[in-house]
Amino acid sequence: MFYGFFRFFGTGYTVHCFYESYKKDVDVNDYYIDPKKANKERILGLFFLHDALSKPQIAELTGFSLPTINGHMKDLENMGMIGPGELMDSSGGRPAISYRLLPRSKLALGAEIRKDFVKICLCDLKGEVVKLWNIGIEYKNEKAYSAKLNSLLKEAISTCGYPLDNILGIGVAIQGVVNKAGTEIIFSKILDTSELDLEIIKKDISIPVRLCHDVKTAALAELWHNRKISNGIYIAMSEHLGGSLIKSRCIEHGRSGYAGSWDHVTFSNKGKLCYCGKRGCIDTYCNFETLFEGESIPDFFFKLREEKSKEYKVRWSKYLSTIAFGLYQAWLILERRIILGGELAMWLNPEDVAFVENEIINRSTFTCRPGFVIKANVEHHACAIGAALPYLADEIPEPVRPIEGWSTYCKPEIIEY
Ligand SMILES: [Zn+2]
User: How far is the CA of 267 from the centre of ligand 1 (A)?
Assistant: First the structure.
């Protein structure tokens, strides 16, 4: 009612609010919703839910008049967001023209930095990979590496075949925790990133560039492509383990950004030395160096699945069992869905997922309803894809937006201590 009053009368006046709790001036435009803009967004939103729509179908779905629809559709066409497609089937009369979303009207780049390669991917408004570059380049902790990365990103922009105006920004995902603003690395021990310099990485690039934590971007990619997840624990089963917390379809950071770092849960303070400097972290039991004994991932799974090697079965069961043991601790505290992602996600079969879940259920103090452990939907390039997606989210009408943009991601946590 209070906001409704301002929406009705609000035309840009600054109103001093009489409520005791509001000690500052409130701009009524903060609450004003432009009905024309809202209607246009409603029409645009439909194109994220339907492959093709005719104007009469939009009229049926929205209740808007055809002249209103014509005006908004013209605007959306001029913006390059939608375009005409084929004629629709007609049950009599003149067939209507269908319109489609043009997902490549807006694009964003995501880059993943690893020890021996850089992966860059260009994503469209549907979160699909339009182009992918896999560049074999060894990470070196020196300024020259940042300069090389800068030239790789510029090359990707100039050779992708799309104008710079269509590209919204670049997210650079690293194996380390960064601050929420994406300007600083606050923890990175897999790769020494003390010389990695965002100012050099973004030099002469006129679109926004930011840093991000790779396991958090992988979780963002999963959220985008799996609408069933509201709250979850995303884990990356990769060269090193990683974890990310999902709360109300957003990434939960904690006070500094360390929330979800399940990979350093301690199993034994006398265990093997972890790259983080402490002993006995779960990562030391479940990283690739421990699981694989020199063989490649495809070789391991060939011996496991095709040759049905007992030795490999024992190693695999031990790995999954240890993962489940660690996940039980997380589940006990958070009791939410567990998503198994990372490089091994594509190799998981339903029996593996059920094995992890059963291990948790058998250990559990409480009765748990099965079906809470799932395999990630995004099996490839999740870190790089997720680094691009928040730029695109801002272009999508709120009701159909798969994830929130960087601005929401960057909001400070409410700290109670
Ligand atoms: Zn550790």
Answer: 10
Q: Look at residues 108, 101, 103 and name the one whose alpha carbon lies nearest to residue 126.
A: 103
CA of 198 to the centre of ligand 1 (A): 26
Q: Which residue has the tokens 């849960």?
A: 265
In this structure, are 366 and 254 located in the same domain? yes
- pLDDT at position 409 is 87
Torsion-angle region of residue 104: left (phi > 0), alpha (psi -120 to 50) or beta? alpha
Check which CATH number belongs to the domain holding 180 and give it. Answer: 3.30.420.40
Question: Mind giving me the DSSP string for 232-298?
Answer: EEEEEESSSEEEEEEETTEEE-TTTS-TT-GGG-BS-TTSPBPTTS-BSBHHHHHSHHHH-SS--HH
Range of the domain at 192: 105-219
Q: 233 with 280, same domain?
A: yes
Residues 42 and 112 in one domain: no
Helix pair angle (55-62, 66-78), 10° resolution: 120
Q: How far is the CA of 146 from the centre of ligand 1 (A)?
A: 27
CA of 284 to the centre of ligand 1 (A): 7
Helix and strand counts by DSSP (H, E) for the chain: 14, 17
Residue 241 CA to ligand 1 center (angstroms) comes to 10
CA of 50 to the centre of ligand 1 (A): 46
27 domain-assigned: no
pLDDT band at 95 (very low <50, low <70, confident <90, very high): confident
Q: In this predicted model, what pLDDT tens digit does every residue of 128-176 receive, in sequence order?
A: 999 999 999 999 999 999 999 999 999 999 999 999 999 999 999 999 9
| 408 CA distance to ligand 1 middle (Å) | 29
Copy the structure tokens of residue 249.
């379809």
C-alpha 214 – ligand 1 centre gap (Å): 17
Q: Do 71 and 183 share a domain, yes or no?
A: no
